[in-house]
Amino acid sequence: MTSENHPVSPPPGWTMDSEELDYEGEWAAVDSWGYRIATSYKLGKCTPTMCDPQGGGLIFEGSGKFYMVDQMSGEVVQIILPGKLGEIVLS
After folding, report:
1. Fewer CB near the last or first residue (10 Å), C or N of the chain?
2. Given pLDDT bands bounded at 50, 70 and 90, which one contains residue 10?
3. pLDDT tops 90 at residue 7
């Protein structure tokens, strides 16, 4: 369950735009919600992968696994299968 070496295109309505994902502001900063998710669930360093700016969904990678978080409710769910980002996008 690791990142892939070839590019993956997000599904319609989702984006992988670095400005939308805002790693520095939403994940790297100690007072950010992404950092709090990573430490609360003991996931180590987490990296946002893609998001749905209109629906509030976000997929991120932490400890070699993929997770989906609903930014509105804060619910975090581990994506067990499929385990690769390209397969997740297709499912």
Report:
1. C
2. very high
3. no
Q: Tokens for 55?
A: 């629906």
pLDDT at 71: 83
DSSP3 helix / strand / coil % (the chain, rounded to 5) = 25, 25, 45
Check: CB of residue 42 under 8 Å from CB of residue 6: no
CA 8, 33, 78, 56: dihedral to nearest 10 degrees? -60
42-61 pLDDT, tens digit each: 999 999 999 999 988 999 99
Q: What is the dihedral of CA 23, 40, 64, 91, to 10 degrees?
A: -80
**Is the CB of residue 85 less than 8 Å from the CB of residue 16?**
no
- The pLDDT of 10-28, averaged and rounded, is 93
